[in-house]
From TrEMBL:
Protein's organism: Paenacidovorax monticola
Source species, domain of life: Bacteria
Pfam family, one: Redoxin
Domain Thioredoxin per the UniProt entry, residue ranges: 25-165
Protein name: TlpA family protein disulfide reductase
GO molecular function: oxidoreductase activity
């Protein structure tokens, strides 16, 4: 019986240690090197994200959650863009470019939109297959938080404010 309690205690301690590691930000990793091809044909690299807090959102026009969360992403961008925050929406490789352009224009998306024609960007960012998948990148180019599905926007705003306050 004592061994079972010891094993349970050791497992609990290990989980707590991993949780603290992730919670305290020690698990941050550099955003992967990748090149985003924007709708206007220009290119932006991961290195270009440094110096700003950036939300990188993988989405598709056929994804109902993506479409539903887009007004909140626009509102978040509008709220923080003048304070050193940026947003980059990356359309998945299976999304027809004409649909992405139409969605971007009709919704008047105010931030950069890229099309991942080959799927290379999604693969580089952890082989993203589920949409929406959102990554928050700090000013140093490190991923500090990721979401699969729509983020909790009040929590996201608190995180953005904390990251913007960092030097």
């Amino acid at each position: 019986m004592a061994i079972k309690h010891w094993i349970a205690g050791a497992a609990l301690a290990a989980f707590a240690g991993v949780g603290a590691f992730v919670y305290l930000g020690a698990g941050q990793s550099a955003a992967p090197e990748s090149t985003f091809v924007l709708l206007d044909g220009s290119r932006q690299s991961t290195a270009d994200l440094r110096g700003k807090v950036t939300l990188v959102n993988f989405w598709a026009t056929s994804c109902t959650t993506c479409v539903a969360e887009m007004p909140e992403i626009v509102a978040t961008y509008n709220k923080y863009s003048g304070k050193g925050f940026d947003t980059l929406a990356v359309a998945m490789s299976y999304d027809p470019p004409s649909y992405v352009v139409n969605f971007t224009e009709t919704r008047k998306l105010p931030f950069k939109v890229a099309i991942d024609n080959t799927g290379a960007v999604a693969r580089a960012w952890g082989d993203v297959k589920l949409t929406p998948s959102t990554f928050i990148v700090n000013k140093r180019g490190e991923i500090v938080k990721s979401y699969v599905g729509a983020p909790d926007f009040p929590e996201l705003h608190r995180l953005i404010e904390k990251l913007l306050a960092e030097t």
